[in-house]
């Protein structure tokens, strides 16, 4: 079998590759649908013209949506985790459990999505399910628990943009020097990410950062507190 982008990037058993291919295909089709494109366009336009915040109607619309990292971003994240030797990964925003790598503390507030994620991890087997702890509920509470790892090596922010900065601030005291932080769709949703971007661009907060030109944008930051600018 000829190598694919997934098999070149990810070390996994064939049934895991097949599962990921199926879920990524479903997620991509959903994101490209007319209804989903209109959903994002309408809200981005509204937020630029008026004051708009995420509301209950948006939650209802997204309840059965993947909201997952695109496949190429997942490959990039996986290789960063492997290459950096990250032992403790925090994934803020699990959705249906499309992207999994490292030893992960995952968060998800929507019970139906948490259940689907567990089904997918169980289908993948212990090499995936065995390294994930899923914390259901409000991540601003579940990530404050005393049983968090003392050191976090990698943080993925794949959540509603107003939660990005509060989540970072909760996890930041546990970030090791050199920890990597990824935030998704920072180009597409730059207006919504303003407070987060202002924070990581301020040298006093200890981050070095750059934007990776993936679709929608992917902000990569490295935590280097105390370094001279």
From TrEMBL:
InterPro entries according to UniProt: SAM-dependent_MTases_sf
Any matching Pfam family: Methyltransf_24
Taxonomic lineage: Eukaryota, Fungi, Dikarya, Ascomycota, Pezizomycotina
Protein name: O-methyltransferase-like protein
Superkingdom to which the source organism belongs: Eukaryota
